[in-house]
Amino acid sequence: MTTPHFFAVATIGAAVATIASPATAQTTAPASKTKVETTAATQEKIELSGAELWTLNCNRCHMIRSPGEFTAAQWEAIMMHMRVRANIPAAQAREILKFLQAGAGK
Amino acid sequence: MRRPDHPIVNRTITWGFVGLSLLATSFASFGQEPASASDYVSRAEYDKLKAEHEALKQEMDELKTAVRQMANGTVPAIPAEGPSTAKATSPEGKQLVTTTTAPAASDAVPIETSGPLATHSFSIVGDAEFQFGKISHQHGAFMFADFAPIFLFRGGDRILFEAGFDFTIQNNAPGSSGYATTLNLSFATIDYIINDYVTFTGGNMLLPLGTYSERSAGWLNKFPDAPLPRSVLPGNGIGVQLRGGIPLGEKGASLTYSGFVINGPGSMDGSGDAGQLDLGGNVGLTSDGKLTNNLHGGAGEGGRVAIFWPWKPQYDLEVGVSGMSSRYDNAGRQQYNAGVVDASLHLGPSVEVKGEYMNTWVGTDNAGTIRPRGWWVQGGYKLAGLKLGLPYLDKLELVGRYDTVNDALGTWTKRGTVGAVYYVTNTLWLEGDYEFTSNRGPNPAPDDSLLFQISYGF
């Protein structure tokens, strides 16, 4: 097996193994009991508030966007996009989302 | 038998019958109210009552239908305004009664607006740029630079589909008339959040080689064009990726990582000769319809590791190291390797400095290993930091950039840019820049340029 093939197979294998591991979603929907439990098990402590994390993370790449610019549902999609794009840790992303949704537009 | 013939007996029997009849009559009428004229209704009154009953029944049926629709998740049709009127008619067609319901709030069928958000949602974000450019020794012209929508479809707590497009227009001269519109699929990925630390991404991905492709292009760029040395790196690739962020402490610091496997670059003519490296190819079907969307059969691997370290609000440093390695010629003999170091520094709300250094090693059939490479650094200072209290100056940021690239094929370009960004709003920017360019070699970059741009992020 050539080196590139070895790395490719190893990476895909690691992906499959990781997918099979216990999972935690970005948000904690009250309807999903399992989700809440797994989230609690991996919940990180954060000293900063959602507003502070919003300024800290968003301002790294662009001018911060006001919570009222989007609806609560739109913020869910946008924050998921930003979490993936900027590799924002999940717990921080959740706190930022809470802050944005608290002031979201209708 | 002989009939009694006595007159007293006969009278007694007669009065007895009369008495019993009266008694029976009085018992028969016991419990009945005395009748009066008001106990009777006319035909017209009966029809009116019947019509009212029918109208109420109809209204009740409408309400039942509305409730069923709401239970099924659909919104019942409600009169936009004005009273609702139910009319009843007699079999002869004559209107008998009209019941009118006032448009009071309590009478409207309520639409529930609270409750959990929908699990699936669709959003469009993105940016658009409009430019005026004047290049030395050429005419100045308006240009529609880019319209770049990003479609975001969130399918629950774990799944996100995102696709970014670039619409641009290109003049067909010389040789033809008019202009052509080009549509480029910048990226299209399915993201699956596996857990708090790992996200799987598959599709056409912006590659985490440095940060420019993922987090600085388009509206996020404070300059109208990209840094020159980005040309030695692929901007995107088709494959799979694992990525995530791990918090370090409780003050917002994090360790981030990305690892990907893609088809990797290809070769324009299939050979491994110098100058044939095709960083944007090797995807999709070949022009003759063959399913050989990976011409060299190998895979390209790479990734990025970075630390983001804020030490107080709006004071932070991010440093990252990234790279990739891949075959690129059809025979799979020649290798493309790249290494990138990137950094971004914020010193308060007014000062930003960031840059990247990239070096690549390209094996060739005819020139050995060549090293296309370059670096760029840019800085910005928001005049609001001077606390002058002047509204227009407070919205201004002075920017500067230096970038250089050596394509290892004989051309070396250096460029210095100075300019300013005026923030009309947080998403609408006016940019003005002058670029000083010096070239050496056969493939020069455009001469000195004056560029103005309106950028809008949405």
Structural description of this entry:
The complex is a heterodimer of chains A (106) and B (458). Chain A is an all-alpha fold. Chain A has a domain of 59 residues. Chain A has 5 helices and no strands. The longest helix of chain A has 17 residues. With 458 residues, chain B is mainly beta. Chain B has a single domain, classed as Porin (Beta Barrel), CATH 2.40.160.10. Chain B has 4 helices and 21 strands. In chain B, the strands form 3 sheets. A 16-stranded antiparallel β-barrel of chain B has the order 3-4-5-6-7-8-9-12-13-14-15-17-18-19-20-21. In chain B, strands 1-2 form a two-stranded antiparallel sheet. A two-stranded antiparallel ribbon of chain B has the order 10-11. At the A-B interface, helix 1, helix 2, helix 3, helix 4 and helix 5 of A face strand 3, strand 4, strand 6, strand 7 and strand 8 of B.
Secondary structure layout:
The complex is a heterodimer of chains A (106) and B (458).
Chain A: H1 3-19, H2 33-42, H3 50-58, H4 72-86, H5 90-102
Helix pairs in contact in A: 3-5, 4-5
Chain B: H1 7-28, H2 43-71, E1 84-89, E2 95-101, E3 120-135, E4 141-155, E5 159-171, E6 179-193, E7 199-206, H3 212-215, E8 236-248, E9 253-262, E10 266-267, E11 277-278, E12 300-312, E13 315-327, E14 335-347, E15 351-363, E16 369-370, E17 373-382, H4 391-394, E18 396-406, E19 412-423, E20 428-440, E21 449-457
Antiparallel strand pairs in B: 1-2, 3-4, 3-21, 4-5, 5-6, 6-7, 7-8, 8-9, 9-12, 10-11, 12-13, 13-14, 14-15, 15-16, 15-17, 17-18, 18-19, 19-20, 20-21
